[in-house]
Design goal:
Blueprint (H helix, E strand, L loop, with lengths): L4 H14 L3 E2 L24 H4 L9 E9 L1 E2 L2 E2 L13 E10 L4 H13 L11 E6 L3 H11 L6 E4 L11 E3 L4 E12 L8 H4 L6 E14 L5 E14 H8 L9 H13 L8 H18 L8 H19 L11 H11 L7 H32 L4 E2 L1 H9 L5 H10 L3 E2 L1 H18 L1 H4 L12 E2 L6 E11 L2 E3 L1 E2 L5 E6 L1 E2 L13 E5 L2 E11 L2 E11 L1 E2 L3 E6 L1 H24 L5 E7 L4 E6 L6 H16 L4 E7 H6 L13 E7 L3 E4 L14 E10 L2 E8 H22 L6 H36 L2 E3 L2 E8 L4 H14 L3 E9 L2 E8 L9 H11 L3 E4 L3 E7 L4 H23 L1
Parallel strand pairs: 1-2, 6-7, 12-13, 14-19, 33-34
Antiparallel strand pairs: 2-5, 3-4, 5-11, 6-9, 8-9, 9-10, 10-11, 15-16, 15-18, 15-24, 17-23, 18-22, 20-21, 20-24, 21-22, 25-26, 26-31, 27-28, 28-29, 30-31, 32-33, 34-35, 35-37, 36-37
């Protein structure tokens, strides 16, 4: 079976659909409800709560194709990429799942049928081996007695002291759903005698293609195993790996998707060696970066953004190794996105946006990279005993910003050991020094500077006259400053600026007099002192100067409105969910509000509608919002809502919205609920175990959101030319029709390839027992040529095939030479001759090559000339051989 990656994906889904599995989309690569993961790393991630018994399964049998990233943590393939043939940072995982339905026997039978049946993947049975958990006798009996494998094909992996530490005991992390598994390996060698020891270490000889996990336990944080309420099955098979086997390639990087991408990168950067490992790394990383950026992540120094930055930097480093000295990743974005759309179901953002993000990151890093590599190589020449000193590692990292992982990789290639002990000592010393420098701000040591508490007047005033009591530049107290745009902190005697607290962001605005203007960018509190962070825009600031402090009142008003809306939301949740909601966090700014709270269940759409209805009704009643200072005891008597884990003073501030809401709060608020205008929930998610998050908009932002959705709906309505009540029905009809047309077109394409193959074969030449095929086409779809050339190869023994295709006055060329002829003439030699004739360029290997150029004026003359040249080469090689 030699199918495209698209056909293999589709075949997998078709097989399980016939086995009564519901085909559902994979989840986002950004896990929505699992804080333990940076990226989705397995098909089972979206079903974690189902396996744990927290959620009821919607379908008993499911099959998915899941986009996965494995770049850190327990599942980290990053360091293997480029050094092995079968690892990728991003890959598609084919998975079938059983929730309280079939278990071990059916799961194994399905896997074996798909892999070995002539109707499906048609792999030779003798080429497959399996591993099992040594204690799992049931699985052993299924493979031995039901499937009929020989003893030599079943490898029990040794049991460790703890059952879940065994190689064949799958677990998601240090806790969670888990169970014994059975893995299926493919023998990539010609040897019929399987070597059991090799199976334990995955290599190019024995390739793991499918892992079938029998979920039956819940691993606790203390290492104990608890039986799950129901048994389930979770399987995973890498699409790129199974494609390499079915396309008879001994590397993921040889499959159709990667070959096109590698050839393009090489062609764009004038690289001749298509087998270079650095090309593999760049191809892998650019694809992964595009998926990550499309999910909303941008490069940064932590979390998901750090993974993205690390991938970009590693790709650039390997670009330098190939001799690419300028930024190049952003240039290959459009073609990579085109391939992703062609070979998968990737829904990419605009290529211009992705390109801009990559270009900016390349600009910033190439300067660091070039300088860092020069310095590193200079130091490597001076080292003794093949050890790179910790001082050098620290200097490169701390002074020049050179990433540790790149130092590690360069030294790994040169077999140089890194002095981590000294490096870690220097890093720890730096952390201690950094903490000391921040002592004033984070350890409340303001008595050193005799700072008096700031008087807050911001509840009543938006603009006041006051005095500057302190100026700070970093940790230093200064008396004056006139350096523009330097980040400094001002302390005032009184302030109208609200400091970040209780989820509400700090105020912004300006502090000024006739001598200077200072832009306040954030306001924070340190004990009883309010710190105004910002930059000097003009003039000179002096201590004890009399100033005007003025908040951005338009922004403050929007923040206050969103804060009042949060209180309405909290009380509405209590009513709709019929219990006292315990707040776990919040964020209130001028754009939106976010509210996190403990709740064991998911919130339905109907419940969301009820919550929205209650909040909006209270807004339209234009209720009075009142704040008063009372004793904490009185507040509890009024059943006021307050945070259970917070320490309160004797006197507290109670915020009351008529008789609907009573809550302790130090934030700023609207005067009446009518100021909120309208309230709309835009997001409702579970962010961790039993913690829900609701995000909402008010006023203008809410209206814009509603209008945006309405605009989209109206466009759909206009394009479909259908009444509102019939739109869903029409869309379902069009989707079905589209699927049918795709099927018809595919059948037509197969027919066309078959007929074109017959026509070409009739016009082929037989030269010295070699079939010479030279044929010119006019096809818009490049995939047609690939299918055609594969079809021709299957119909010929000894052959040289040259297909040319004309599009937009340009000509593209595909060349293929059978294996027994490559000692006489190669595909690369032919493509080099042809591209020289058409003023173009190309590349490839001995058996396959491709290129392009300008359409020749006389196509027949061009074909005759190519034929004559090939004939002369063949004749000269035959004479030489004799």
């Amino acid at each position: 079976m030699k199918k495209s990656i698209n056909e293999i994906r589709k075949t997998f889904l078709e097989f399980f659909e016939k086995k009564n599995h519901k085909i559902i989309p994979g989840s986002s690569i950004i896990p929505k409800n699992d804080s333990s993961l940076l990226f989705t790393n397995a098909g089972m991630n979206q079903f974690k709560d189902v396996f744990l018994g927290k959620k009821e399964p919607i379908f008993p049998r499911v099959a998915t194709v899941q986009n996965c990233l494995r770049t850190g943590g327990k599942h980290n393939d990053l360091n293997n990429v480029g050094y092995t043939s079968y690892h990728n940072t991003f890959f598609e995982m084919l998975g079938n799942f059983s929730f309280r339905d079939y278990f071990k026997e059916d799961a194994i039978i399905y896997a074996w049928e798909l892999l070995t049946s002539s109707k499906w993947f048609n792999l030779p049975e003798e080429k497959l081996l399996v591993t099992i958990h040594s204690s799992d006798k049931e699985t052993y009996n299924i493979w031995k007695n039901i499937i009929g494998l020989s003893e030599n094909q079943i490898i029990p992996l040794k049991k460790e002291k703890e059952i879940f530490l065994s190689e064949n005991f799958w677990k998601m992390g240090n806790s969670g759903p888990c169970g014994p598994c059975t893995e299926i390996f493919f023998n990539n060698t010609q040897n019929k005698e399987h070597q059991n020891k090799d199976i334990l270490v995955e290599n190019n000889n024995y390739l793991e293609i499918w892992n079938i996990v029998f979920i039956q336990y819940n691993l606790q944080s203390d290492g104990s195993l608890i039986d799950l309420p129901y048994k389930s099955v979770d399987t995973g098979m890498g699409l790129e790996r199974i494609t390499s086997i079915l396309q008879r390639k001994k590397s993921n990087y040889k499959i159709d998707l990667f070959q096109k991408l590698i050839f393009y990168i090489a062609n764009q950067n004038n690289i001749k060696d298509l087998e270079n490992k650095s090309l593999h790394i760049i191809a892998d990383h650019i694809r992964t970066c595009i998926y990550i950026i499309s999910s909303g992540v941008i490069p940064s120094n932590e979390g998901k953004g750090y993974i993205l930055r690390r991938l970009i930097r590693r790709a650039l480093r390997h670009g330098l190794k190939l001799g690419i000295k300028e930024k190049f990743l952003y240039k290959i974005v459009p073609y990579t996105i085109k391939l992703i759309k062609k070979f998968s179901n990737g829904n990419m953002k605009k290529k211009e946006e992705i390109g801009k993000i990559l270009k900016l990151e390349e600009d910033q890093f190439l300067k660091i990279l070039k300088k860092g590599i020069i310095l590193l190589h200079e130091n490597i020449k001076k080292i003794k005993k093949n050890i790179l000193p910790g001082k050098i590692i620290f200097s490169l990292h701390d002074t020049f910003g050179f990433p540790i992982d790149l130092i590690e990789e360069i030294c790994k290639e040169k077999k140089i050991i890194l002095d981590y002990q000294k490096f870690n000592q220097l890093m720890e010393a730096q952390k201690i020094q950094s903490k000391k420098s921040k002592k004033f701000f984070f350890e409340k040591n303001y008595q050193t500077f005799k700072i008096k508490p700031t008087i807050f007047l911001g509840y009543q005033e938006k603009k006041i006259k006051t005095t500057i009591t302190n100026i700070f530049l970093k940790e230093n107290s200064i008396k004056k400053i006139q350096t523009l745009n330097k980040k400094i902190i001002l302390i005032l005697k009184e302030t109208p600026f609200y400091s970040e607290s209780g989820g509400q962001i700090g105020d912004t605005g300006k502090i000024y007099n006739k001598n200077f203007s200072f832009l306040v960018e954030d306001t924070k509190k340190n004990g009883l002192v309010t710190m105004h962070f910002g930059r000097l825009i003009s003039g000179e600031i002096k201590i004890n100067a009399n100033v005007t402090a003025e908040i951005d009142f338009k922004k403050r008003k929007l923040i206050a409105i969103n804060h009042s809306a949060t209180h309405l939301l909290h009380s509405s949740l209590n009513i709709v969910l019929n219990q006292k909601i315990l707040q776990k966090g919040s964020l209130v700014n001028e754009k939106y509000l976010r509210f996190d709270f403990l709740y064991p269940n998911s919130i339905s759409q109907e419940e969301i509608k009820k919550i929205e209805k209650i909040v909006n009704y209270k807004i339209w009643e234009n209720l009075n919002i009142n704040c008063e200072i009372i004793s904490f005891k009185e507040a509890k008597e009024k059943n006021a809502i307050f945070l259970k884990n917070k320490q309160y003073t004797e006197k507290v501030r109670l915020l009351s919205i008529d008789n609907f809401s009573h809550e302790l709060c130090g934030g700023t608020h609207a005067r009446r609920t009518g100021e909120i205008g309208i309230f709309k929930i835009i997001s409702n998610n579970s962010i961790s175990a039993n913690v829900c998050r609701i995000e909402a908009l008010t006023r203008k932002e809410a209206l814009l959101s509603i209008q945006k959705k309405e605009s989209i709906f109206n466009k759909i309505k206009k394009n479909l030319k259908e009444e509102e009540t019939k739109i869903v029905k029409k869309i379902n009809f069009l989707l079905e029709k589209n699927s049918y047309l795709k099927l018809i077109y595919k059948k037509y394409e197969k027919y066309k390839i078959k007929e074109t193959t017959k026509k070409i074969l009739k016009e082929s030449f037989l030269i010295k027992k070699t079939n010479l095929v030279i044929y010119h086409l006019n096809e818009k779809k490049s995939n047609f040529l690939n299918c055609l050339i594969n079809n021709l190869k299957n119909n010929l023994n000894s052959f040289i095939i040259i297909l040319t295709n004309e599009t937009n006055k340009k000509i593209s060329v595909l060349v293929s030479v059978s294996k027994e002829l490559i000692t006489k003439i190669t595909a690369v030699e032919i493509i080099n001759f042809i591209t020289k004739e058409i003023n173009g360029k190309g590349g490839g290997n001995k058996e396959n090559a491709q290129g392009g150029g300008i359409k020749p004026k006389n196509n027949n003359f061009f074909i005759k000339k190519s034929k004559k040249w090939i004939l002369s080469i063949l004749e000269s090689k035959i004479k030489k051989h004799k």
